Amino acid sequence: MNEKLTLTELQLIIKDSLYMALPDMYWVIAEISEIRENYNGHCYLELVEKHPDEISIRSRVKAVIWSSRYRFIKSFFENSTRESLREGIKILVRAKIDYHEIYGLSLVINDIDPAFTIGEMALKRQMILKKLEEEGVLTMNKELDFPLVPQRIAIISSSNAAGYDDFMKHLTGNSFGYVFYTALIETPMQGNETEAGVIRALEKIAGHLEKFDLAVIIRGGGSQTDLSWFDNYNIAYYITQFPLPVITGIGHEKDLSVADIVAYRSLKTPTAVADFLIECMNNAEISLIEMIKKIIEKSRLIIEESKIHIDSSRLKLIPVARMMISEFKEELSGILIDMIRTGKEYIMRAGLLPVNHKSRLISGARSNLSARVTLLTGKKQSLINHSKNCLNNMNNKIGRFDSSLKILDPENVLMRGYTITSLNGKIIKKSVMLKKDDKIDTRFSDGSVSSKVI
Amino acid sequence: MTKKEFSFNQAVNEIDKILQEIESGVMDVDRLSVEVKRASELIRQCQKKLKSTEEEINTIFKDLT
Lengths: 454, 65
Hints:
- The complex is a heterodimer.
- By secondary structure, chain A is α/β, with parallel strands linked by helices.
- Among the domains of chain A are: 7-112, CATH 2.40.50.140; 131-285, Hypothetical protein af1403, domain 2 (Rossmann fold), CATH 3.40.50.10550; 412-452, no CATH class.
- Helices cover 52% and strands 19% of the residues of chain A.
- In chain A, the strands form 3 sheets. Chain A has a 5-stranded mixed barrel with strand order 1-2-3-5-4. Chain A has a 5-stranded parallel sheet with strand order 7-6-8-9-10. Chain A has a 4-stranded antiparallel sheet with strand order 12-11-13-14, with no helix packed on it.
- In chain A, strand 2 and strand 3 form a beta hairpin.
- The radius of gyration of chain A is 74 Å and the shape is rod-shaped.
- The model of chain A has no long low-confidence stretch (mean pLDDT 87).
- Chain B is mostly helical.
- Helices cover 77% and strands 0% of the residues of chain B.
- Chain B is built from 3 helices and no strands.
- Chain B has helices at residues 8-24, 29-51, 55-64.
- In chain B, helix 1 (8-24) packs antiparallel against helix 2 (29-51).
């Protein structure tokens, strides 16, 4: 083959050959490794197929979606998958081979099947979930105790995200007046930086655990709904291992990302997260109020029961008390009557007696006294007179007795010749008083002699 | 946060315990007034925690971010 070809001629042969060999549209599975839109609305991509290790590249091809098709494909794809066409996702494209003399081989894409991507993402999610489950960590965050008062909130979000503003507005403007404390740890919420950023944020919060009740991961909704950034094994793993409950609100209406699935609780929007937290606070307050009510109610009941008890005791006591009272009454009235009587007597004595009788008593006493004095004086005189008479009489009598006595005096008798016989000092008046051999004394006027009875 | 932090959970547990005692009917009227007083103090603190701002925490949070 000696014929020489120009480069262009060669390229044209290649082109013709390719077109002849591959005239149709082909459905091709590939992963987007690069994607960009240019100023006139065309979309340029680089598609790859990776080895099973997911790192090294097995094949690569350029592709283009012309702007006329791109508008439809893009919106249909995003509406269906709620994902944007971006690097890292797998797509099934309908394309034909194009060959350009300058730019070489490329695929001109005229359709993309979103169902494939949905399936792929679901599969990827399933793989991650399966792995987490096998590691035994899948539900770890869900198993944490949720604080009664989720008041101190670590927020992982980006400050320029609409979702963060919504969340803050909703939270701080709650109609109950609950207080929340928030700390924002900023990080990109989509794109390649998401994984590293979210993990860094979680690590930062973990360094201040005692300051927080929980962490929330929030992101605005709208078109920015690339859920698959959170279909990420590392983010999910960190959440499962996080010591505080994590609540996600990363803005997806239908599907849950792996991060949502492993989080303590996932809600569709940041606003819903705020609502949930307010509701928790409200529940805490309601349970407080319930307890107050119960305490009041039960306390009343106890007091009421005590009252009833007292009342029933009172009722039982009344007859007893009445009886006791009437007994006391009787006793008292007896005492009272006595007292009245005694009192009257005293009053009589103390009042009437002096008034009516004092003068009588005094005059009586006086006359009595003077009568007695007179009487005594008379008696005194008559006593004196009488005593004198008595003494005189006595003197006369004694005089008479004296002469009689003189006659009777033993001495005088003895003088007249009488003797007095005595035995052992005892006067013998009868002869029978003596017996033989008694030694007797016979007294004469001039002396005594002793003799013996024969 | 060096001072002893008020714990809502602990307070609620204590209130609950008091309530249970009251409900069980083992509490006499003398203790009742003491315990009810304690419960109402705890409830007051709980409500305060829900609705009054502690500037201290705000400051700490500002330093964090």
